[in-house]
């Protein structure tokens, strides 16, 4: 099918990033969120990030203006009913995602493809709350969306070839690369990445090294662009914990048990960059390790 319009649920970091790349690729975008302030902040962020691309001569001012004109916002979820493709990018909580699908499905066109940007939750379970198991799949962008080249495409047990090929064509049009993953907990990237981050937290918890020494060791010893604890702060410690819980529950293996220190930070509200404190304190001019 020829996808021309894209609906995006959630105006947070992932949602506004997806809206950015979709509009830049020529799709008409309808971005929704329950918060009007979140929508305003999302549009401002997209404008700022597009302007950065203009300043670096990656796009022209006319291309930026055209992309911004393709983005519309709404606080009414059902306004997405007329779109060809819906990408849910709400909080990484299964109950919230299921509620969104239940509210949205009665208003969708028969041909609309429904997808989730979940980084770990079962696509099969999410699809069970909809009326279109053949037209449902995982569409997992990496963060930050405008920069990262990979998109994981996750089929559920009933996803048909037409749906998969249509989503793959969208990824190709975005100029990104797709990786096909089966519907197992955390898929490919987070199945590998999150246990590494969790082990880094255990390394800190057990006193093997400090925040700074752990991050420096991985950056200089493994050539990682960011240390694992710095990366955890960037992703959000609540998201890291949620994914580790999905892995632990879904695979029933103690090697995926979330580190108690990670749980403690989340309980304290130290979620990383978005709360100004995590493994680093971001309230000053430069980040300072908190341990």
Q: Quaternary arrangement of the chains shown?
A: single chain
Main pleated sheet: 8 strands, mixed
Shape: globular
Q: Unreliable segments (pLDDT under 50, ≥5 consecutive)?
A: none
| Helix-strand category | alpha/beta
Order of helices and strands: EHEHHEEHEHEEHEHHHHHEE
Contiguous helical run count = 11
Mean pLDDT, to the nearest integer, reads: 96
Task: Estimate percent helicity.
Answer: 40-55%
Strand content: 5-15%
Number of strands: 10
Distance from N terminus to C terminus (CA atoms, Å) equals: 52 Å
Strand order of the largest sheet: 3-2-1-4-5-6-7-8
- Our Rg estimate from Cα atoms comes to 19 Å
Structural summary, described in words:
The chain is globular, with a radius of gyration of 19 Å. It has helices spanning 13-24, 36-55, 61-69, 94-104, 123-127, 161-174, 189-205, 211-221, 228-235, 237-251, 260-267; strands at 5-9, 28-32, 71-74, 85-88, 113-116, 136-141, 150-155, 177-181, 280-281, 288-289. 42% of the residues are buried. The chain contains 11 helices and 10 strands. With 291 residues, the protein is an alpha/beta fold. The model has no long low-confidence stretch (mean pLDDT 96). An 8-stranded mixed β-sheet has the order 3-2-1-4-5-6-7-8. A two-stranded antiparallel sheet has the order 9-10. Helix content is 45%, strand content 15%.
Looking at this protein, list some descriptive labels.
291 residues, alpha/beta, two-stranded antiparallel sheet
